[in-house]
Amino acid sequence: MKKVLPGLLLLAMLPLQVFAWNWRTRISVSLEDQPLYVYCDHLEKTYGIPFSYSRDVVNLNRRVTLSVRDMPLWQVLDQLFGDNGIQYRRIGGQLVLAAQSSFQRTISGYVEDASTGEKLIGATVYAPHLKAGTVTNAYGFYSFTSLRDTLSLFVSYTGYNAMQMPVPGRDNRQLNFKLSPSNTLKEVEVTEALPRLQDQTQMSKVNINMAQTKTMPRVLGEADVLKSIQAMPGVSGGMEGTSGIHVRGGSPDQNLILLDGTPVYNSSHLFGVFSVFNPDVIKNVDLYKGAFPARYGGRLSSVVDISMKDGDMYNDHYEITLGLLASRVAVEGPIVKGKTSYMFTGRRTYADLIMQEIANKELKLGEEGEFWAYFYDANFKINHIFSPKDRIYLSGYGGKDNLTMHRNETFDSMQGSAKKYHEEMRFRMGWGNQAYAIRWNHIFNPRLFSNVTVNYSQFYFNTDYRYKYMALDTPQVRENDNAFGRYYSKVDNLGAKIDFDYRPNPQHVIRFGGQGTWHVFRPGIAAFNNVSDDMQLTDTTYNDQTHGGVELSLYFENDWKIRDSMHLNLGVHGSAFLVEGRAYTSIQPRLGFRYMLPRRWALKMSYTVMTQYIHLLTNHAATFLPTDLWVAATNKVPPMHSQQLALGLAKTTNGNRYEMSVEGYYKRMENVIQYQEQTADFSAATKSWEDLVVVGRGWSYGMEALIQKKQDRFKGWIGYTLAWSRRSFPNINQGRVFPYKYDRRHELEVMLSQQIGKRWEVSAQWQFASGLPLTLPVSSYEMITEPSPNAPLPPDVLDPVDVYRDQYTVRMQDVHRLDLNATYVKQRKVARYTLTFGLYNIYNQKNPFLYYYKHNPELQRRQLTMMSILPVLPSVSWSVKF
């Protein structure tokens, strides 16, 4: 028995060594000038690795010399077969060998909605027996290289019925998949369906589900994709109710917002309450908070890539939505069925009509006064198929905001005389965006796809005021006081770019391309003032110059699946900026790495370098209005640079029900700018603005955690952010580091939705955020000023003058709010009706919008006062689609 037992134990252990092989199995072999089949026999007998091949296809008589010790199997196989025209692949428990030329075939084409022809972004194309697959790109195109033998492809997409199709034959072919929407009364929205989170190399990326965005609680009844982005970890919304975004300690100008590949400079309507993106027009939204792919450049903090719907290729559709403050219309359909489609949406608010009388009373505009505050916007898109290999898209956006306050009043003198005076004040503000693009998709061959884009974008704002004061009933002496001012800015961009998508095999996705953009900046201020009898106005123009620059870039990136457990994304983005006879250049490496840990947890790491050639001059006196000026880097003010390192864990549970991720990041920024202390008025934007700003550094670091449930009737997410953001400037705060004005220590977002029956869906969103930093004066004194002798004011006026020392030494109060939403959907044969009810800030929390000093007559001193603008707000909207 003593001799038999060791033998039995050895036999029991032998299968573990012989048959339990994987790519990391350690191999030792030393053979000189031997045929390849000898090495195959050695691996099969020693390590239990069976080979399968045809001697008519694969030549294993080639002689090689190999001597390795304790090397992973995949490296040994690369050395044996890599230079001999032989490709290997594991299928089941075997290693299948084939000649490089005879082993592969490429299946390519588009994945689209069977009922509308809409291209599906991020649809999964998978070969089950090969355990390999790919996803469609931003235009619905896929390319999959596989065995020449007959195979089946499995295609899936969230909200659609999956399909499996055999692909017989041995030649390359173009195959379009048409997926049918799931059998549900709820409208199918285009949402991304990427592989499981741990299978992706990309980190710091979030796809925004548009179907869930429409059911989320909303401000004043308008669904808003930027509000959904604000609910993600690492993204702060700034002031209460605004739609601006601040990502990982960055400023608003550090976000690259693309609409069909065209940059949008201002994303807000109506003082930031709404965004410029109509939810009816959006097909897909990707948010990158870091780990930026090499194809993106020009901003430091984030990329928001928004794709518009293409339009139904087969049927006409009309949708009308009526809300309390805004209404919108959307139409789409075929121009030539199956070949050309169109899409158009329009939206306008009518808040000014509702608030006219209230505003006149509250602002004391007088009987002849006027108040207007509204916005409108429109989107269109035309999609035409020239051939199976060529498609063209023409898309556009235009929108404008208007605010007008006009006071017209006649009153008696305050000095007791019988004189009458007439005062007229007019304030107008308008801003808007335009974005247009024409794109051409071309398939060169089954593995190479290209997209050529020519685009134009514009942002402008124009503010002007006029003050007119005159004495009446005094024909002999004409007392008057007139003033006029204008503050304006305009940005124009004309660009062209070409992008290539090359997929040689499922292990590699290679992207490369280039771009050129011509920037034109037109900031300016004009002020006119006169106190005289001849009414002649004196022109004092601070700045009325045009500045321009040319930005050029090239990029290359390779998404490489080294093996099942290891994935690498390597890229480089090179750019140059030509301005004022100088050329700034930048080489920006991009690295993404994923390694699969036990229990299917993915360890991810990224390192990103970014450069930004444009700056935003922020007027701190009006932070909630779009009065900031865009300017280019100059000889005195260099471009901004950043480096960001991120490390995280991610996992999708079995059945794809839950996604969990946690990330830590550190970002360092160079050449960030800020106005010098006490520079807050409009005259700061003169042509010498370079002398009024200081250049400094910034740091941000923190941790983000997110858990999501994306399936079943009950869905939602919980996100938490712990973050720090710092700035340092030589001439501000005595050179000491201070918190950035959008530094929030803690943010918590909870979003839950429940489908009730077939027609109702309710949702709730609760958020909490630490207070923002605030700068307060350390002392103040009073200065006597003498007004115009013609003005009906007391002879002496005491104006308080504040003295500041340190930046952002105190915090505003914390922000928290609960919002509720209920959506009712009823589907008829020819129409679909949707009724939405909402309650914003249900427990009427008074969150700060801004702080200011107000004189308290009882205490006879000024008192710090908080303004809150959004109390509990009910909303209702009704839409019909047919």
From TrEMBL:
Pfam families: CarbopepD_reg_2 (PF13715), Plug (PF07715), STN (PF07660), TonB_dep_Rec_b-barrel (PF00593). Residues 49-100 form the Secretin/TonB short N-terminal domain. It is a multi-pass membrane protein. The keyword Transmembrane applies. It is found in: Cell outer membrane. Its main location: membrane. Coiled coil: none annotated. SMART domains: STN. InterPro entries: Beta-barrel_TonB, Beta-barrel_TonB_sf, CarboxyPept-like_regulatory, Plug_dom, Plug_dom_sf, Secretin/TonB_short_N, TonB-dep_rcpt-like. Keywords: Cell outer membrane, Ion transport, Iron, Iron transport, Membrane, Receptor, Signal, TonB box, Transmembrane, Transmembrane beta strand, Transport. Belongs to the TonB-dependent receptor family. This is TonB-dependent receptor.
